[in-house]
Every structure is written in structure tokens, then in C-alpha cells.
Amino acid sequence: MRGKTTIGTWIGFIMIMLWCLFPVAWILSLSFKSEGETATGSAQFLPKDPTFDNYSAILDNGDFTRALINSFGISLIATVLSVILATLAAYAIARLEFKGKRFVLSLALAIAMFPVVALVGPLFDMWTTFGLFNTWPGLIIPYMSFTLPLAIWTLSAFFREIPWEMEQAAQVDGATTWQAFRKVIVPLAAPGVFTAAILTFFFAWNEFVLAISLTSTTSSRTVPAQMSFFVGPDPFNPPYAQLATASVIVTLPVIVIVLLFQRKIVAGLTSGAVKG
Amino acid sequence: MAAIEMKNIVKQYGDGFPAVNDVSIDVADGEFLILVGPSGCGKSTLLRMIVGLEDITDGDMIIGGKKVNDLAPRDRNLSMVFQNYALYPHLTVYENIAFPLRLAGASDSEVDKKVRDASKTLELDEHLERKPGNLSGGQRQRVAMGRAIVRDAEAFLFDEPLSNLDAKLRGQMRTEIARLQKRLGITTVYVTHDQTEAMTLGDRVAVLKRGVLQQLATPRELYENPANLFVAGFIGSPPMNFLPATVKGNQVELPFGTVTIPDDKAAKAQDKGLLIAGVRPEHFEDASVVDSDKVTEEATFNATVDVVEWLGNEAYAYIPFEAPPEVEKQLQQLERDLDGESLRTQLVVSLDGASRISEGDDAKIWVDARKIHLFDPASGDNLTMDSSKAGIVPGGNAMAKAEEVGEAQDSVQPGSDQATT
């Protein structure tokens, strides 16, 4: 019985891994194929003649590197601001009793559910009027507003898990409310803060609709939008290998970030705080 | 170090729940005061009002001669040990203990000296670099104490600090706390629902019921001169026996027979009709092991023993009896107030270990009639109390007042006396 379960689990596991990772592997292999090889429509999985040409070509491409800088800048700024605001808001929601608390939470959820596409038109008009069109803040502001609700919900759940006594102990020990928050509550909510940060960063990093609609030049266009301009000389024959290379390059930071923060997102950091 | 004066302290929550009612307690400088009572009696709330974590609805809280009602916890300079310790899990033991000093802006060398002192006192030296998550319950408890003693606080406050430890460790830590307090000589207020802790630790003990102070006295005074049925039933283990009684002259009629009590006690209980007699289990004895000159007909009775629990040094014998309905109702109410749930009215008798009484025997039991208390069943007051040796008993009828408050509490929040503190 036990053996069967184990074998079944492994078969399921391998199938899911294949399903998820095969496209990734395909892109990876494509990025090492020469342009000639992809143009002839060769269907073999492994490149016949592996080459780094695509990588050097794409990193020499000024538009792409510029877009990469934009992506990093916009995503990081949006993440930092969003997490700071969400931490403060979530703390208030978790700890304070005030009128309209439920309203704030429902409103946040409603914003998160709003389809992004529906906002493109009005935002485009507003941004052209305010002069925010094709600027970094023009993308940072909508990214923040779309990621804040999720961040607030995640973080307020974390704050609620932290025993009240931690804060009261800090206050008795001589801390002001702000010191108790900064020295005790925030470190304890660190896993939540990192979770919120990662979610926000991914949203901003991968976002396409706003990025393509609210920008017009490489001065603020992010990588997902920039990639749609990789058409090459022949519209019927896009440079697959280069597109795949660009995909690999934009995926790398995501993987690195997940690996870095994975250790931080450990549940049960509060273990040992209270009775055992 | 400072004295703490509580003057007519009242706590009423936003929903109208009266948690603490007109409690006045003076804690002298260096005194060890215990707040004790069953679940939901407002003892923790009172402690939290001293430290400033709960607002005071009415009354004055004076610490070291200064009114602190409106001061934030950090401005009261008190240190507190929480029931669940509330250690900072992201900091090492060293930094946990150092936390109050760092907040006060102490220099590194001063912090180090004081933390090492505290850790030496509490034998935490080898754990200083560990995180609280890797410590045992008793070690965490000591870290929490370390954090409290490391700075020169005006007073220590303990909120049921031992309730999460196992029985053996609890006994050891109890002694440790007593020793520490005597050595540091610092004013201490200690909340517990455990009457053993209350009796062994406290210089004085305040017994609370439903947010009303019942009696404030030394452990010995509480034990020997309880102010009312509630205090009598709460202090002592196994608890005091309550029997229906009628007084005629100096004769007290109990369900098992009649005994003679001293004249001065009898005088206080004349013409009151049906009363409740309170006798502690240890004031009974197997007549055959008592010195023969004490055993007289007036002080003995025969009864059939239902169950005997022999413990070596002593034995508990259980003798069931029938109580008249008017007393039974009062006794059941009392049982509920004390968080108990006994199924029958029975007498618990503590016998000498040498006693040969066994189950089913018709035993001759001697009772020390001088130690019998008589209570008024209606008000619960102890009629035979020696008020010169009973500490402070609040004026008016504290039990009836608690009953009234209890009704008010139930109307806001039914079942509130079952609350876990």
C-alpha cells in the first residue's frame, strides 16, 4: 500500500515537472540555436551547433538593455513604496479599531479585482494631461495601486498572528508605540513583508498591458513591452532565437530573487515567543 | 522601588462590562502582594491597569506618591512578566534581556554588565547566545524574569508566570521567585489563580470575586479567619467543608450529630435560624488516634465512610450527607463560583496516616469544635470571624456585591466567569 502511494506520488510529480518545465527547457534550448537553425524550422530539441551569439547580440542591443534598466528601476521603486505603505496600513487594520475598517478592506479587494485593461483608456488620458505619460512614475503609480491591496491583505494576516503581548511587553520595557512597531513587530512580520515584496515585484516585472499602453519610447518602456518590438526584418519570420534569449534573461532575476528570499519566507518565525 | 496605592479603582469596558469594581488596595514598599481569584475575577485586568496596558475608568492609581492614571506604560517604570512570557523571538537571550536597557539608551558596557549580572542570578549564562525558540519552558520563564530584573524598576508585576510550567518546575520556580523578591526587596504584585502560590509567596493576599475585593489579609489570616463563604471555600486544599447547622445555646446541630462550640463564637450566632458551618478537613480526625483527653461525646460523631484515599502521611475520607434544599442551592452556587463541579454534598475528612478507617466503616470522627466557622447562608458573611485577625475586609457585603456585579456581567456577556485569563 505504502509502496504504491510512493510510486504514484513520484509519477505524478514527474508529470507535473515535465508539464511545467518543458516549455522553459525549450526556450533555453532555443536561445542557444543559431538564427539559421531556427529559420529553417528545424524541430529537434537540442541545438545542433550551440552558440552564445544570441546572448551577445541581445546584450549589445541598446534598446533591450535600456528596457532592462527601466524594468529594474520601476519594479524596485514600486515594490519598496508599496511594501512600506502596505506595512503601515496593514498594521493599522490588524491592531486598531476604527470606523470603516471593513470598508477599507473591501475597497482594497475591489481594486485588486478590477480588470487592468478597463483602466488603460482613462489612465492614458490622465497621464497625457498630467505629463506622466511615458515616464517612470507613470508606471510606478498604477503598479502600486494594483499591488497594494494584495500586500495589505497578506501583511494584515501576518500582523494578526503576532501576539499582542509582544507589543505590550515592548511598551512596558519602555518603548514608544513606534519603537515597538519598528523593533518588534516589523522583524516578526519579516516573512510577510518579503512575501508581499516578492508578489509586488513579480507583478511589476511581468506586467505588459500598462507597460505597452503608457509608454512610447525606450525612456520608460519595460522589458515585456520592449520584447513585442523584436520583429526583425521579416514580419513573417520573427527572430525566435533572440526572443527566447530575451525571455531567458528576464527570467533570471526572478529565479535569483526567489532563491534569495526563499529562506526568509519561513513560517513559524515567531516560535519561541510565547509559551511552549 | 515604590509603594502602589489603588484607590477605588473601577474598570468598565466599552460594552458596559464591569470587570473591576471599586477596588482599593495599598501595596507597601517592598511588599509581595498576591491577587488571587477564580477565572474572570478581574485580577489580570487590575494588574494591567497598574502597568498601564488598560485604561482606568475611575479611581486613582498612585505609584511612588505619583498619580499615574494617564501615563503610558513606558513612563511608569514598572517591569512585567507575562503569562506566555512574550519574549522577542528574533533576538537572542542576551538581547532579550538587554532590550529595556537599549531602549533607555544605556551604553554598551553598562548593558553588558547588567545583563551578565541578571543572567548570573538566573543561571542563564550558557544560554545567552541562543534564541528563545531553542529554550525549554523553564528557561524561557527565566529569560522573561531576566528582562524584568535587569533594570531598576519601581515594581515587578507577574501575570500568572508559572501557569505554563509543569508541576515540578512550577514548585522550583515558585521558590526561586520568592528568593529573588526577598533578595531584591522590590515591591511585587503577582496574579495567580493557584491558591498554593498565593499562600506560599504572598506577604498579603487579595481575594477577588467578579471584580470585587473580598478580603485582603496575610495568608494565615485568610486561612484562619475567612471573611465570607467565598474566601473560606477558595483558600485551602482540599477545600473547607460546608454543612447545614443550627445553633442552640453553645450546641451546634450538624447532619451527623451535635457538637459544642466555644461560648464567644456561639454568642455571635444566636437566633439566626439555619446557618452554614465551615470546617476544614484537617480539623476532623479519627477519634481513635486523637489523645483520649480531647475525645468527648460533645465533639465526636459516628458516620459511614464512603471512600478513603490513603496518601501515606494522611488519608482523605469522604462522607456523603443530605443538605436541606435552602442550603443546598447556596452551596451549589458557591461551588460554581469556585470553578468547581461536585456532584454531591459530601464531607471531606483528613485523617492521620495511622488511622485504620476503611471504606464502608462506621467510623467515630472527632471534630475540633474551636475551629468551626459559622456563616450566614443569605449574605455569606462569616459570623464567627475574629475581625482583629482578618486583615482588611471591605465594608458592606462583598459577596452580595460580587453577585450583583456578576449579574451585570452576565447581562453584557453571558458565561463571562468561564473566561480564561
UniProtKB/TrEMBL annotation, chain A:
Topology term for the membrane: Multi-pass membrane protein
Source organism of the structure: Nocardioides astragali
Keywords of the record: Cell membrane, Membrane, Transmembrane, Transmembrane helix, Transport
Protein name from the UniProt record: Carbohydrate ABC transporter permease
Gene3D superfamilies hit by this protein: MetI-like (1.10.3720.10)
Keyword presence, Transmembrane helix: yes
Top-rank taxon: Bacteria
Chief location bin: membrane
UniProtKB/TrEMBL annotation, chain B:
PROSITE patterns the record matches: ABC_TRANSPORTER_1, ABC_TRANSPORTER_2
Positions of the ABC transporter domain: 4-235
Taxonomy, superkingdom: Bacteria
Keywords: ATP-binding, Cell membrane, Membrane, Nucleotide-binding, Translocase, Transport
Record flagged with keyword Cell membrane: yes
Gene3D superfamilies referenced in this protein's UniProt entry, alphabetically: 2.40.50.100, Nucleic acid-binding proteins (2.40.50.140), P-loop containing nucleotide triphosphate hydrolases (3.40.50.300)
InterPro entries: AAA+_ATPase, ABC_transporter-like_ATP-bd, ABC_transporter-like_CS, ABC_transpr_MalK-like, ABC_transpr_MalK/UgpC-like, Mo/tungstate-bd_C_term_dom, NA-bd_OB-fold, OB_MalK-like
Keyword check for Phosphoprotein: no
NCBIfam families: PRK11650.1
PANTHER family listed in its UniProt record: MALTODEXTRIN IMPORT ATP-BINDING PROTEIN MSMX (PTHR43875), TREHALOSE IMPORT ATP-BINDING PROTEIN SUGC (PTHR43875:SF15)
The name this protein goes by in its record: ABC transporter ATP-binding protein
Lineage: Bacteria, Bacillati, Actinomycetota, Actinomycetes, Propionibacteriales
